[in-house]
Every structure is written in structure tokens, then in C-alpha cells.
Amino acid sequence: MIKTATSLIQGFLLTAALLATGPANAGDVPERILSVGGALTETVYALEAGEKLVGNDTTSTFPDAARALPKVGYQRALSSEGILSLAPDHLFMTDEAGPPPVLAQLKALKLPMTVIPAGRSLEDVKSTVRTIAKVIDKEQTAEELIHSIARDERKLAEKNQAVTKPKRVLFILQHAGGAPMAAGLSSAASSIIELAGAQNAVQNYHGYKPLTPEALVEIQPDALLLTSEGLAHTGGLESLLQTPGLALTPAVQNEQIIDMNALLLLGFGPRTAQAALQLHDALYAADSAQ
Amino acid sequence: MIEAHNLIVQKGRSTLLDDVSLKLQPGQLTAIVGPNGAGKSTLLKCLSGSVSPSSGTVFWNEKPLNTFTPEELARKRAVLSQNSSVQFPFKVRDIVEMGLNPHLSTGLGQKSAEADALIRQSLELAEISALRDRTITSLSGGEQQRAHLARTLCQILHRQNTALFLDEPTSALDLKHQHGTLQLARDFAQEHNAIVVIVLHELRMTLQYCDQAVCLQQGRLVEAGPAKEVLNSSRLAELFDIPERIAKDLTRSFA
Amino acid sequence: MRFKAITSLFSRSNGWLILMILTLFLVAGTASLIGAINILPGDILTSGFTPQQEAILTTIRLPRVFLAAITGAALAVSGAAMQGLFRNPLADPGLIGIAGGAALAVGLVIVILGPIGGLAGLYSLGIAAFAGGLSTSLLIFYLVRKAGGFSVTTMLLAGIAINAITAAATGFLTFLSNDQQLRALTFWTMGNLGGALWPAVLVALSVVLPATVLLARSAQQLNILMLGEAEAEHLGVNTKALKYRIVFCTALAVGIAVAVSGIIGFVGLIVPHLIRLLFGPDHRFLIPASALGGAILLVIADTLARTVVIPAEIPVGILTSLIGGPFFLFLLIRQFRGMISL
User: Fold this and answer.
1) Does the beta-carbon distance from C197 to A105 stay under 8 Å?
2) Subunits that touch chain C (at least 3 Cβ pairs < 8 angstroms)?
3) What is the ipTM of this complex?
4) Residues C65, C84: Cα–Cα separation, whole Å
5) Measuring CA to CA, how many Å separate B86 from each of A227, B5, C224, C342?
6) pTM of the model
7) Per the CB < 8 Å rule, is C197 touching A101?
């Protein structure tokens, strides 16, 4: 009898203490934010709440301040103790974060968290901004941010209207080992290419696959798109041009090779509309000059 | 008593044993002799129950051998095979202790005083007490053979009316230990009223120590009976394809 | 009589086992206090646990320490039994295809099924790993029986062939996978105890404990098997039943270990090897000592894995292989030198 009573009291005290220390109290604004996912971190900074971040993950590389924060590792291989050691009072993560048992542990500890699906469109970007803004009480800033995204979106739409013949763009993830990994449909690369008013040169598979040199020639892309990181990692432009078959594509013959920062290009964060504009300009600059 | 009735063992197309029948009496040391490939080891394996004949039956006190469970059989008979090599560094004493395994389920305590005494006695009989704490992998071939002999003895040492099967137990031993082993085999047969069967190439020793001899040639039984009668010089000359003069030399002192 | 019983209880080998049990408790206790959030023994004594400490201890750290101990014990005991069964000190539970089959099944779930939500997502990889590992070893078993008899050599060859096939199939899956799937699969094969939840601990314990007890009870028979199969039969050992029992217990124990922790290398090889080197090959000591040694080693390795790069963590399988590999080479060289100088 007494045992039950004490354990009940203990349980109550534990819950009460967690409620008191944590921000589980409805309406409380989180002060120590942990953000897992490059786009989410970027959004928190864009909403002028960067100083509240206590840590992020290995994909959070923008802005520079984000690089200086403690990293909790790769978003699919999180560790609950590592996360807790930063004493966050709110956790933002994408639906790709895991592993599931670690998330279960964090839920058992009643750590407040918001799971946000990884974006593939500007609508997704706006909804991410709104979701995060609501949690951290920055809805005013969010409206301004969304406004500027919408402005870029309109600009983009105008430019895209002017395109008569969409360029066919091949996105190469990495090209070490002779067979370049190229983006197919339903990839982030495919989405940004279409957003920029162009067309993915690969139309017959989903995800990323290594291409044989012959397929490369057959696809005949008008332009090559790479991440700056991917290009640098495998020996830069020179090594890229050594890839068999690549020299026979119009992209290389017309020197239409574009590289952009990986998070900017594929992150689907607040800078995505600008990234699409930038990509559009890089693709069609020569045409408009004529 | 062990009786073998019309044993035939075939492996692939070759016949290893061809219609062998014989009787083995308790208290006697029996040698199986014959040239290489005569089927000596195969006969030993049939009699000890480790190989089932293709046809024919072995009876132990009128009970067919294949009606015993492996553990029942292991409490009645022990076998020393030609080459048992152990790759792990067990101590000699541990190897000998393994001989007690079949008796553990019938009340012999694993670390009991009785078990200890049996192990000590077996080590002494096989003249390997001095090496009891050495690892088996560090011993010479002959020493290893004696360690396994001790293990084999340990398995049936405290029983009467047992059977002991030894397949070339002296192959790696020096002369002193060859004689020691054969003396041991004969004493064991007499003291434990046991059937002891041995495969042996040393004909002089066979004549010197064994009561009975079973002669095999190409899987067939040539003759079985008292050693000194069966292994006469003309039989040896024919069996091993050697000049009569040499065969006479071998048997001279035992005639 | 009674005095004799007491002295035999404290015989040399039992003394070592008791020492190892105490070490395990000490190591596990220390490991429970160390982590990204340290708990100082002094603080506990003066003011007790804070609610946060208590919550971390009960929901994260204790299940993790338990799981590390159970997994380490399962891997090391299985390694000891496999080395006995194959009469080869370099044998590994991987020989009966558990790790390969589990990796293939996990790859299938990650790459073909994609992310699974909810409760199913929580346990899907573990269940897939267990099913994949067990069915692979059953397949090897079936092939060996089909090939006639149950010889250790056929088992070894069938194991190698099946492992090659599962490795190729897993390779094909990595070819099909996208970036995230590839990383998830790679991380899984490097082993991690981070997902320790109480249900997983209980399931693992309820499989590993009986399997260990059963293997420990077969210890003397395993010793006898070292003489060779024919000799073991002569000594009344039903070698067929023994081999079935060993493979069955090992498959279950390693299957559950892989299910809860991914692939953790070298524990199954190095722990029994070390114990054999220090205390001799007697399985009556080797099996319980391997269980304790494996538990101690993995609790230490996992504590390192989760504290070296706070707030992130290193996959524990990398750590065990990174430390285990050179250590194993050192042992081999020392052993080899010893043999020459003899």
C-alpha cells in the first residue's frame, strides 16, 4: 500500500518536474532549439531565431553560424543521449530522421518535437516556414519571408514563360569510377530543374542510378548540373571531362556545365526560389544575350 | 561374448569385408592380422559398433549390437582409433577425463573422488602420469597415443565384462612402450574378464602376447583360432607374401 | 564432505568466473553513470537523482547497457560454440550465414519497402534481421542435409557459398538504393545499440539466456567433439543431436543479437580466443567465461562509442573491429612466435 503510494508520488513528481523544466506547457516558446535537417536549420536562421539554436546535424551547413554549432551526427543515425546532452527544449526534424527506436526514446522522455516532411516544391518550403514560425512564435517574420519567396516565385514564373524550348539538364551527383550517378524523376534535383524552367534529361527512371557512357551520349543533355561539393570532391572540372562519353554531349560541346552549392540547390529551404532563379539565369543567359 | 554372423561391408563398388563370421571370448586378447588393405580396421569398426555392416549382424551376449544406444554401448566398450588428433591445447588429464563421459548420466560425479581415482589409475596404466598437466598439442606422437590410450582405459576401467578395441595402438611407440601396451592389454583382458581386440602389424609381439588371432586377406577370413596355431610359418609366408625363411625366423622362438 | 563442496565451489576456474561477474557489474554500473549527461556518484549520494537523470537512466541508459551486455554475451558464446563445432579457432557465427542473411533482409526492407511509420517502423528492421538471419541458416542446414549427412566440411562450404550469394544480393540492393537508403543500410551494417528499448531487452534476454544455458550444458560434449566425431560417438556422444543443438542455439542467439544491434564484428572471434589463450580450451569454463567476457567487452565498447564524439556517436561495430582487429593480429603473432620458439 505504502509502496504504491510512494511510487505514485514519485511518478507524479517526475512528471511535474519534466513539465516544469521542459516547455511542454502549452504556449511556451522554445528557447533551446535543436534542428536536424539543413533546410530546417536554414529556416530557423531565416526566421531570425538562429541564436536559439543549441545544435544541428551534419547536413546543416548554411549559414556559416550553423557550422559552428555542436553536431548530433547524421540525421538517420541519431543518438538520444547526445541530443539530450544539449538540453534542447524543442526538436525540429525531417521525416527522414531516425532510427525509429531513438525517436521512441525521445518521445518517452516527452521531448517536444516537430516532424516536418522533406520539401519538393515552393509550397512545401512555405509550409515549412509557417510550421516552424508557429512553434517559435515568429509568425510576423514568417509572413515577410513568405512574401519575398512569393516575389521570387512570380519573377521565376515570368522568366519561365519566356522560355520557348526548355533545356534538357542532366544532374550528376558524383562521377567517381567512370559511371556518373545521374538523377532520375522524383528526386530533389529533378524538382529544382523543373522549377528553373528546364527539363530533367532523364525521364525513364526514378531516383539516382549510374549511367553507362553510351546512355550518356544517347540522352544528349543540353546542360550538366552538379553540386560544387560533388565536383570538387572528384577532382573538379578536368576530371569530370575525362568521363567517357561526356565529351560527346551538347552540354560539354557548348560548355554548359553549372555547379551550385548542394544545400542551396537541393535543400528545398528558404533560398530555393533564389536558387531556381540563379539556375534559370545560368541556363538561359546565353540565349537571352543573343 | 561377441559373435559376428556373415559380415559384409561394401563401400561403393569394392567389398571391404566378405562374409566374415567369428566368436570372441571374454578374458582373451585377440589380434586381427593381415596385410595392408585386408579389412582389419573395418572388421574392428564393425565389432565395436562404429560401422554398421551392409549385411550380417554382430551380437553382444546374444543381443544385436544395433539395438544399443550409443551411450549404453559406450559404457560397455572403449575404442582407440588409429589417429585421433586434437587441435586445441587440452591438458592430458582433461583428455583422460573425457573417458568418463558415458558414466556421468549413471551417477558418477564429474569431480568426485571416484572419478579422480579412475583418471589417476588410467594415467598410471598408460605410463603418462608425469605428463598429466602438459597440453596434448605439445606432446610427441607417441606421447599423444599413450594419452588417448589412458582415455580409452578410463572409459571402462571400473567395469567388468567389457570390450576394448585397439587399432594399431603401438604404431608411434618406442619398443619399451610397445611391450608395455601389449602387456597392459593382456592383463586388462584377464583382470576385467574383458574381450580385447587389437589390430597389430608386429607379428612377433602378436605371437608373444595374444591368445587368439584372426587372419584376414582381401576382406575374407582365412582362419581364426589360438594365435600360435593360426600364425604358423607357412601361413605367414603365404599371407604376407614373404620367403619361408623369414617367416620361420619370425615364429622360431614361439614354436 | 561439506567442506569439500565449498572448496570445489571456489576452485580456480570458479574463482575467475566470480571475478568476471563482479567486473561485469562494476563495468555496467560505471557505464550507466557515464554518457553525454554525466551522473556523478557523489551527487546521487548527497541529493539523489534529479528527475532528468532518473528519466535518462531508466529510458535510455539502463536498457542500452543491458542490451550491450546481452548482445556481447550472445556473440561471444556463439563464437566459442562455433569454434568448437568446426574444430577451428577462427570459426565465426558468420559461417552459418546469420549476418549475411540479416543484412540482405534489412536491405530489402530499407530499399524495397522504404520508410515504414509507427510501431511497425520501430521493429521492422529488427524483425527482418531476425527472420533473414534465421532463414539463411536454415537454408544452409537444409542444403547440408540434402548433400547427405551432416559433415562440418559441407556445412563450411555451404556457408561460404550462401554468404557469397547474400553478399551479392545485398550489393545489388545498394545499387538500387538512393542516397538516404544507402546510408541507412551502411549504418545498420556497422552496428549500433542506440535503439535500446526495454521490450527489445526483454526479448533478447529471453532468447539469449536459455541458449547460453543450453550451450553451457553441452560443454563437456563439445570438449569430447574435439577428439573427432568418430571418437565422440565411441564415448557415447550423440554427435548429430549435439551439432543440431549447437547450430540451433547459435542461430537464435546471433539472430537476436543482429536484430537488436546490427552487425557487430570481432566480439565472437576475439573473446573466446582470448579466454582460450589465458585459461585453456575447456568449454566448461570457456562458454560461461565467454558470455561474461563478451558482455564486459561490449559494454565498454558501447560506452566509448557513445561518449567519444558527443553529441554524436560512432557505430559500435566500427569500434569493435577497429580495436579488435589489431589486437587479434597481436595475439596471432604472439602465438605464432611462441610456437616457433618451443
Assistant:
1) yes
2) A, B
3) 0.90
4) 29
5) 61, 35, 10, 18
6) 0.83
7) yes
